[in-house]
Amino acid sequence: MMHTHLIFLADEIGMASVFPEIKDKLAGDPGIMITLLYYLHADNFLFQKELDILEKHFPARLYVCYETIAAGLDAVLNQESIEAVINANTVAAVNFIVSASQSFTENAIHRLRFLGIKNITVQEQFFSY
Q1: Residues 6+ apart with CB under 8 A from 125
Q2: Do residues 97 and 18 make contact, with C-beta atoms less than 8 angstroms apart?
Q3: Mean pLDDT lowest for which of 6-15, 73-82, 89-98, 104-113?
Q4: pLDDT tens digits for 68-93?
């Protein structure tokens, strides 16, 4: 039975920091469900093959949603996507983790707070451009 739903919001910068954590959580506690909203430029699908493999290995525990951005534009949290994840959630404990550029992180925190989400963790970046 699932006891925790981790919802990761990541852009290309944050994905390098998030991927190892997602992998560890899936390999560890079977009671953790993970949703990843991954914002990336249309020509830059980093980690797509790895995420596809993990989705096949953990079909009931991992959902990945790719949100593509036009080249040259900054990533902005798609409120409809996050609302869909919130509305479809079936687990009592939900944690939001943002791992992204500063502008995306600020936008994401603002929109999540607007939606009444208070439990938000900002993950430290291991890499940057």
Answers
A1: 13, 14, 16, 17, 99
A2: yes
A3: 73-82
A4: 887 777 777 888 999 999 999 999 89
Virtual CA dihedral for 70, 75, 81, 85, nearest 10 degrees? 140
Question: 82, 88, 71, 90: which is closest to 110 by C-alpha?
Answer: 82
Question: What integer is the mean pLDDT of 20-32?
Answer: 95
pLDDT tier at 23, thresholds 50, 70, 90: very high
Crossing angle for the helix pair 12-27 and 48-57, to the nearest 10 degrees: 20
Q: Give the chain's length.
A: 129
Q: Does residue 1 register a pLDDT over 90?
A: no
